[in-house]
Specification:
three-stranded antiparallel sheet; single chain; mainly beta; about 10% helix; globular
Length: about 525
């Protein structure tokens, strides 16, 4: 924890020093400009796209942008996936900034999040690896505390008359997760991901490039009891620790209640940018990533291998930006495919198969006129997921379409204060689905997780989000903003069933934050 804080402090000192050296004479104008950049949905979406790789820092990130965000999130309701928390609250601190040191473009971000979860079942996990084929869980509702630190950096420099961009990036995350009631899960994790990019620019319009990615990490799990009476299975089976392998039924695990998941990943990127044309600017990215996970016993001497899990991920993305006077257009199309397959050492064969496909479309239209900023957006996301267990024959597959559309308005009022709001409509519907669970396999895990998730993912949901935002000049060089939002989702239609456990009728979430721009 101390190391992460020192890294964050050093990063902020570096950005602040460089930024201070290059600050305009009117610091207030810079802070106001950064706030206006934040509420410009088209420009800000391009900025978010550039965070994925150092290749697009110079093209899509502003020269100067710094922010600090302190937020609180509250979420409650049982319209959720089975292993989610029915209630949680989270506190977040995040800071990010951009600096330019001669010809070197720098971007950095640090975040700290602390989350308190209530009522989560069969899920002694980090929430970073939801596809895992091997994990512990308990049918009793568990309360979890999670602390996560995340440090990200990107750097890019153009060589040979600014025609040869080279870049590097790093993403480091550490987390500590533990439950506060028996059975007490304790989970520690870290992840380090690195990327290096190289490109070339032709005719000042065409830019091509490639990247290599490498990463590794570990998740370490342990289950223990504070009260030994809860470990008496004949008296209190709900408090026992269970092992979930693949997508079959959970079974009691009374010994060797510890393991680790070692992870390694590598991959390549391909980039093609075509800019400064009459049709606008186009940014194409392809990412291939191969991740290998190995699950090992840590409760005894030596190593016992439980499971190997291999994930192959292909992602294609295309971003389009177009500026016409005070109007800005944004469109983003992305397709992602994830294929997972394990090797179970108990059977020396593949038992668990995971497949996921996602197709997304995002569109934004922004108008900045007479101290007014108007944002219009329509988004669609179609995704398909399949989980299949070879030993039991369990097979669940669903296909959904999520739609949301909305409008945002911001106005600069006196003394450079900004008042804004946005409205978003949300509609989610199932497209097709398939479920096959042999009767002999139906137990508590099947009823409380598999059936529950099937109903959740085949239901129709309707809702909306309202957001309001007010910012003001706190003092010279700092623009402060207060932002609040509420979201409500309601279950509209549900597939006919006679299941004992099903999702609830609604879900409510709220968010309030203090944001500083400088």
């Amino acid at each position: 924890m101390k190391k992460m804080f020192l890294l964050w402090l050093c990063t902020q000192c570096l950005f602040s020093a460089v930024f201070a050296q290059q600050r305009d004479t009117s610091a207030t104008n810079i802070s106001l400009k950064n706030k206006l950049f934040n509420i410009d949905s088209v420009s800000f979406n391009g900025y978010e796209f550039a965070k994925n790789s150092p290749f697009n820092i110079n093209d899509l990130m502003p020269v100067k942008y710094n922010s600090i965000n302190l937020g609180y999130v509250y979420n409650k309701g049982t319209l959720m996936a089975a292993q989610d928390a029915s209630k949680f609250n989270s506190m977040l601190l995040k800071t990010e900034g951009i600096a330019k040191l001669k010809e070197l473009n720098l971007w950095g971000s640090f975040s700290y999040a602390k989350t308190f979860e209530d009522s989560t079942i069969y899920n002694h996990q980090t929430r970073n690896t939801p596809t895992a084929p091997y994990y512990f869980g308990s049918p009793i509702n568990s309360s979890y505390e999670r602390v996560v630190y995340n440090l990200k950096t990107l750097a890019e420099k153009n060589l040979i008359n600014k025609n040869l961009p080279i870049g590097v990036g790093a993403d480091y995350r550490i987390g500590n997760h533990f439950s506060t009631n028996d059975p007490r899960g304790s989970v520690n994790d870290f992840q380090l991901n690195l990327v290096g990019t190289l490109g070339y620019t032709f005719f000042d319009q065409l830019k091509i490039g490639a990247a290599y990615r490498y990463g590794y990490g570990q998740e370490r799990f342990n289950i223990a009891y504070k009260s030994t009476s809860y470990s008496q299975v004949t008296l209190l089976p709900a408090y026992y620790n269970y092992l979930i392998e693949g997508y079959g039924e959970a079974y009691i695990k009374t010994t060797a209640m510890g393991y680790k998941n070692d992870q390694k990943r590598s991959g390549i990127d391909g980039y093609l940018n075509f800019t400064k044309s009459m049709l606008g600017n186009f940014y194409f990215t392809y990412v291939y990533l191969n991740e290998k996970q190995r699950f090992l016993d840590t409760s005894s001497e030596g190593f016992t291998y439980f499971d190997d899990f291999n994930l192959k991920i292909n992602t294609f993305s295309l971003l389009w930006l177009k500026h016409v006077k005070s109007n800005k257009f944004f469109a983003f199309v992305s397709y992602s495919n994830t294929e997972g397959k394990d090797l179970n050492y108990s059977y020396m064969a593949s038992n668990y198969i995971y497949n996921h496909n996602s197709l997304s479309l995002k569109t934004n239209f922004s108008v900045n006129k007479n101290n007014n900023v108007y944002n219009y957006f329509i988004n669609a996301n179609q995704y398909e997921e399949q989980r299949k267990d070879g030993l039991t024959g369990n097979n669940m597959q669903y296909n959904r379409l999520d739609l949301n559309a909305g409008f945002g308005y911001n106005r600069i009022i006196k003394s450079n204060n900004i008042l804004g709001f946005s409205l978003t409509g949300i509609y989610s519907l199932p497209l097709n689905n398939y479920l096959n669970i042999p009767t002999v396999n139906i137990g508590q895990f099947t009823q409380r997780v598999i059936y529950f998730d099937y109903i959740y993912n085949t239901s129709t949901r309707l809702g909306g989000t309202f957001t309001t935002d007010y910012s003001f000049n706190l003092f010279n060089g700092i623009q402060a903003g207060l932002k609040a939002s509420v979201t409500y989702l309601n279950k509209d239609k549900v597939k006919d069933n006679n299941f004992v456990y099903t999702p609830g009728k609604d879900r409510f979430s709220s968010n309030i934050s203090l944001n500083l721009y400088f």
